[in-house]
Design goal:
Layout: E1 2-8, H1 13-27, H2 32-39, E2 49-57, E3 63-70, E4 76-85, E5 94-101, H3 107-116, E6 134-142, E7 145-155, E8 159-167, E9 170-177, H4 179-185, H5 190-206
Antiparallel strand pairs: 1-7, 2-3, 2-8, 3-4, 4-5, 6-7, 8-9
Helix pairs in contact: 4-5
Length: 211
Amino acid sequence: MVFLGVYNHLMNKLFLLLFTIFSIHYLHSQSTNELDKVLKIEDLKFNKNEIRVYKRFALASGVELFRFYMDDSGNWKAEFYETIDISENREDELVIDKITLNPLKNPKLVWLQILDTSVIYLPQWKAFTYKLKKNLHDYNIIEDEITSSIQTTHILDGISYYVKIKNEKNENEFSYSNPEDYLKIYPNVDELISFKELLDLLRNDFKIFLK
């Protein structure tokens, strides 16, 4: 669901504030720890060179996880986890499917390309929400106050991604909601461009997240 609105800076300041708080709370209401519990991998070791990319569907119970890491022996491994709903008009029941993946090229090169997307430095969503708007350059005078209007788009459902990465001593964790849909609307946002590069890399090299 896409919510499109034009707001006057002065008259709708409180509404925008409340909507932003709601959106941020909804996006971060689940953490990677909670998703690990869904996938039944909460006791799985997180290595010093590893990335986990979780894909969460807003209107379904489905969770997908891509995991790429170097083990204690120096070998690179890639795994894909997926929840499968096997409920049949009874209490929901999920089965976890795990697949071992083989990259189409040297895994060390894949890791370097992953890091080149700047994923280790990408900020949380709220750090760049100020970029997700369009100034309409429409000015009005209301009770001696000059106001301007902006157009904002809020996508209320769809797909969220949660990322956890560590490269030796550097690590990062963040979550983005519908980044590819927002990128179509705001094509010049650097953070969304970098994240799209990461997703495209994983799709091309591992044939995942294709739905």
